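Tip: read the tokens left to right.
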């Protein structure tokens, strides 16, 4: 939390500018939902912390009765609102899931929300109403059991019912609503969104010390401090990305506006979130186990509608969408999604206490959880060197090939690097297929003759394997190019029945389309059969690895759960016979991939967040190899290199044999710096330094990471190795270790 005061000042100034850009609709919504929020006093008087510690064992706490306990935790329930309190039996610290007495600033809607364990957005045709267990006149029948309880809930006001199961676990509890328990009796009166224990671990204003953990990119923190009312809206992150069937498609482009002010956001690969109370030394990690395909993480720092800090998952069961009424798109009506999401809703809450009550402790907990779900992969250091084979540009009559890297060029690069001691290599060959990189979909193993042809590519793959080099062939198994294949059929339409198009705003191929899941799986299976016949078994997949969508096909609507089921089955089948490397795979696929390609090193730098932390890489280091985005395009390479040192993520380069100026009139025109001769010495340097570090930490995992006040990151591994990373331009001394500016040092 170095330079916190300066950063807070900058954030406030930026927030003022951001507030001026809020839409009229957002401002109106805020006005309707909440009364004006008064200024909060900085810090608390100690009373809030005192109330968060219950030193003695008790049968009841704040009206909540003990329903289950184990050696570590005690779980308390208040039946009328299904409110929970969790107590750490070692420290006495508690976390509450509802507010017992509000500050009196909220309207009736939000008063009910903060006092209910489960909250809803109910759809009445195309109208949406936020409600809770009390406001919805819920009849709740609780059945207690050895591990917790089951509650049959009937929302009498809406004729909607469901079952909630809560079970105490060794280090936390799970809450689940089975999909088959949900009943909606009135036509068009349905559940839009559900919040499961949204206020668990909440705090008020700046009364407590700690932070919220958000899964943006690698990870970020939002401090539990007085925000002086500067936030008018929450931070909402889409778990597992956009929904192409509902969300607007866009590509950042200077053609759209004179100045581009928005950057691409980092993906949310892991469905996790956290709340840390550093003053009472209690922390909780939420892990969405079921329903992540239709979930968002909502983080509300104080000032965003209420004076409270809270973070929670929001599950969407149905949504309102616009149905076009004309081909020109000039008129539309709003409709309710026909089919409810078919997934169960389940969240696991895992707690840590004492010195482990921080984001590092939560990362350790997440790693332990993952290792119960998947087998750790071999995590030996390799430098990632990707190659572009061919692209296309317009000729006089037909498109003509632009050859960038042939199979012989790759052989020469490998041989040259081997002479310099660079032998541990992982490569992805893009644009190898007949027709070049944008010839999609691939249904047959046929290499472009301009790179050497199919037989020579097969030999290269075999030679590389024998030399200990992992060479994977790149395949986008989702997209289809309407300029190279017939996409009249078997492509998705959005829920509004318009054909989904992913615009590129490039000169040669202006847009791509998404195949239907059935068609994508069919083409993938055809290509796998073709690869297998030639003895090729190393594939780098994208598209199906990181996209889920609702869609309309032949007049029938399909949701993301159905999409996920098809892709999961196809990838599970492929992983049984092929070595797969996946580009930014959703967490549900991590057990099927040899590595994660395109692992975020940082975050999206949202105005809400106060500090970037390498949460995800801390959890995954030693579990699965991670490869960063391409170093070629990093503006501050010195800092980026240090981030690789700190996170343990392996470096990546995108290379061509020829000068990328030749790509000026192709769809790869943004590949402006890639020539091997330019990056040769940098590759050798990165390899030497990062491999030496990796050899020292081989077989170990990260157990702790702190950022000191003087901007030094200290990473501790389970084998006792510590790595000090100085992000300052000037020299500093940390723990008696002298560090030059922008440098690192390993201490055994």
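Filled-in amino acids:
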């Amino acid at each position: 939390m170095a330079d916190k005061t300066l950063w807070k000042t900058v954030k406030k100034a930026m927030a003022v500018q951001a507030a001026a850009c809020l839409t009229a609709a957002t401002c109106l919504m805020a006005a309707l939902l909440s009364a004006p929020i008064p200024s909060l006093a900085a810090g608390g008087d100690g009373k809030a912390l005192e109330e968060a510690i219950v030193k003695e064992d008790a049968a009841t706490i704040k009206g909540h009765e003990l329903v289950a306990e184990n050696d570590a935790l005690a779980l308390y329930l208040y039946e009328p609102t299904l409110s929970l309190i969790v107590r750490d039996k070692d420290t006495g610290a508690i976390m509450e899931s509802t507010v017992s007495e509000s500050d009196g600033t909220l309207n009736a809607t939000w008063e009910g929300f903060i006092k209910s364990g489960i909250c809803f957005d109910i759809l009445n045709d195309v109208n949406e109403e936020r409600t809770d267990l009390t406001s919805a006149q819920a009849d709740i029948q609780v059945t207690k059991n050895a591990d917790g309880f089951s509650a049959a809930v009937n929302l009498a006001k809406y004729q909607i019912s469901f079952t909630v199961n809560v079970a105490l676990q060794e280090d936390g509890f799970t809450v689940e609503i089975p999909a088959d328990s949900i009943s909606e009796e009135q036509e068009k009166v349905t559940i839009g969104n559900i919040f499961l224990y949204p206020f668990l671990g909440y705090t008020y204003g700046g009364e407590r010390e700690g932070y919220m953990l958000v899964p943006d990119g690698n990870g970020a923190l939002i401090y539990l401090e007085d925000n002086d009312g500067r936030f008018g809206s929450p931070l909402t992150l889409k778990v597992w990305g956009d929904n192409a069937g509902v969300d607007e498609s866009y590509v950042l482009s200077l053609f759209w506006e004179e100045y581009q002010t928005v950057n691409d956001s980092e993906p949310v690969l892991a469905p996790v979130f956290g709340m840390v109370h550093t003053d009472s030394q209690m922390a909780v990690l939420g892990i969405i186990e079921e329903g992540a395909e239709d979930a968002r993480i909502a983080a509300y720092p104080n000032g965003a509608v209420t004076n409270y800090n809270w973070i929670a998952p929001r599950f969407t069961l149905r949504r309102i969408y616009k149905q076009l009424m004309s081909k020109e798109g000039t008129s539309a009506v709003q409709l309710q999604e026909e089919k409810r999401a078919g997934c169960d809703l389940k969240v696991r809450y895992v707690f840590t206490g004492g010195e482990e009550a921080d984001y590092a402790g939560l990362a350790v907990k997440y790693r332990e959880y993952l290792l119960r779900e998947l087998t750790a992969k071999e995590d030996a250091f390799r430098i990632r060197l990707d190659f572009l084979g061919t692209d296309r540009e317009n000729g006089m009559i037909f498109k003509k090939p632009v050859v960038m890297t042939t199979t012989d060029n790759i052989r020469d690069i490998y041989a040259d690097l081997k002479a310099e001691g660079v032998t541990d290599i992982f490569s992805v060959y893009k644009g190898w297929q007949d027709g070049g990189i944008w010839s999609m979909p691939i249904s047959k193993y046929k290499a472009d003759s301009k790179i050497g042809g199919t037989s020579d590519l097969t030999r290269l793959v075999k030679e590389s394997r024998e030399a200990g080099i992992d060479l994977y062939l790149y395949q986008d198994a989702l997209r289809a190019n309407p300029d190279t294949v017939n996409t009249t059929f078997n492509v998705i339409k959005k829920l509004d029945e318009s054909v989904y198009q992913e615009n590129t705003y490039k000169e040669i191929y202006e847009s791509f389309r998404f195949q239907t899941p059935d068609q994508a799986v069919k083409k993938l299976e055809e290509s796998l059969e073709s690869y297998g016949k030639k003895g090729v078994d190393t594939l780098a997949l994208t598209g199906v690895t990181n996209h889920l969508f609702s869609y309309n096909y032949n007049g029938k609507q399909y949701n993301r759960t159905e999409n996920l089921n098809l892709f999961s089955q196809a990838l599970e089948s492929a992983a049984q016979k092929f070595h797969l490397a996946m580009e930014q795979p959703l967490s549900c696929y991590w057990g099927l991939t040899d590595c994660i390609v395109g692992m975020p090193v940082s975050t999206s730098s949202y105005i809400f967040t106060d500090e970037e932390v390498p949460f995800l890489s801390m959890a995954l280091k030693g579990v699965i190899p991670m490869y960063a985005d391409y170093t070629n395009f990093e503006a501050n390479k010195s800092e980026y290199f240090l981030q690789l040192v700190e996170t343990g993520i392996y470096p990546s380069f995108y290379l061509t044999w020829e000068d990328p100026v030749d790509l000026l009139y192709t769809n790869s025109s943004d590949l402006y710096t890639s020539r091997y001769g330019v990056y040769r010495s940098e590759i050798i340097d990165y390899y030497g330094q990062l491999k030496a570090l990796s050899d020292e930490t081989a077989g170990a995992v990260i157990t702790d990471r702190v950022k000191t006040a003087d901007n030094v990151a200290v990473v501790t591994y389970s084998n006792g190795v510590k790595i000090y990373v100085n992000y300052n331009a000037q020299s500093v001394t940390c723990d008696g270790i002298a560090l030059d500016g922008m440098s690192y040092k390993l201490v055994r």
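The first strand starts at residue 60 and ends at 61. The two ends are 26 Å apart (CA to CA).
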